[in-house]
Amino acid sequence: MAQTILTRKAQIKATAQNLFKEKGYSATSMRDLAKAVGIEPASLYSHISSKEEILSSICFRIAGEFNDALSSALTIGSNPIDALTNAIIAHTEVICRNLDAAAVFFNEWKHLPVHDLEVFKHKRHQYEEKFKQLLQEGMYADVFHISDINFTLRMLFASMNATYEWYKPNGKLTPKEIGLQIAHYALAGVNAINNKETSFTK
Amino acid sequence: MAQTILTRKAQIKATAQNLFKEKGYSATSMRDLAKAVGIEPASLYSHISSKEEILSSICFRIAGEFNDALSSALTIGSNPIDALTNAIIAHTEVICRNLDAAAVFFNEWKHLPVHDLEVFKHKRHQYEEKFKQLLQEGMYADVFHISDINFTLRMLFASMNATYEWYKPNGKLTPKEIGLQIAHYALAGVNAINNKETSFTK
DNA sequence: CCTACCGATCGGTAGG
DNA sequence: CCTACCGATCGGTAGG
User: Fold this and answer.
1) Which residue in the set B26, B189, B202 is minimally distant from A189, CB to CB?
2) In a mutagenesis test of the B interface, which of A185, A187, A196, A198 is the best target, namely the one with the most B β-carbons within 10 Å?
3) Cβ within 7 Å of nucleic strand D, residues
4) DSSP string spanning B59-101?
5) What angle separates helix A99-107 from helix A51-74, to the nearest 10 degrees?
6) Could you tell me the pLDDT band of residue B192, with boundaries at 50, 70 and 90?
7) Which residues contact A133 (CB under 8 A, 6 or more apart)?
8) pTM higher than 0.85 for the full model?
9) What letter would DSSP give residue A45?
């Protein structure tokens, strides 16, 4: 019984992720969602309390995955290059194994109810600050040479976050390889001292 | 008289660009738009024929600006590095002088009516191909060293297109400086032979 | 999980 | 550019 409810709830969330990605949150109606799930619109409310709640759960679940993946990644590396590389790979892997939800996370967060929106923006800022610290540590160690750290941070997140737009699960690059390539690209831009030895430069 | 109509129409479009950016296309109602313009909802239809038409005009106007800017930029440069740098600067400048419209262009194109959507995707693909050719020309000239050209193209567009998210008209970087920085970042990632002489590496 | 239904809002038109 | 209005659709509830 509880099993059935959880499964249906998970199905609703997975379907919502896909619809929100394809049509956007506002253009997806609860009737669209019900139809895709195969139940009547009113029946959705036995499993979820509101449309906004679905969006919040998607956005905060992904936020949590990013945080957890980063924490795990940083327990491994030691020097700035490895630490940044591992962080980039971890971030990219989260996107690649949550393609629909990541698209919603990046494009639909502005439709979060006001309170959730504030929490969301705060969490995202804190997360980005951790990457900024990784860059700073590389600068202190004189291994990264960065003239504008905020600009570099923007380039890095732009490179990583666009991954959901083009990654294909059956493509030639694995999520890990993509992360590594992005890391090489970023390390070159950051003029890391060993960028001549990366496989990217071939 | 014609002047008044044109001015009102321009005002409606400018207001729509701003609302579509802030709230998204689907979540912006014609009543929201009318209120922001200061007229009754029905009065909008004296100047525009439909909500979709506003979106189409925004998306295709920006597409045209990107194309025109790229054409102008490529009449200047000669060697691959200058050509790519000029193209990147041109692209970035279009974004920076059309902040609202560029955000709509990047995030709301999926709501275009079907026919316009097909045309839009085709134009965008053609435009991206021109940048791909610039990368290829640099490879033929042995001045860029790229292992995966599609990957590099994605990195480049990700870096450029994210600009609308953080550019501030009164910030310390001008659009041209931003374009130049992105070009240096990209040229490092592409291992251009002169990347050690760029100002970015300081 | 369904039937039946609510008030609010949607894009857009008629007619001036 | 406005008043008046249309049918369609919205998110969600009552009650079973």
Assistant:
1) B189
2) A185
3) A 28-32, 41-42, 45, 49-52; B 4, 8, 39-43, 46-47
4) HHHHHHHHHHHHHHHHTT--SHHHHHHHHHHHHHHHHHT-HHH
5) 110
6) low
7) none
8) yes
9) G
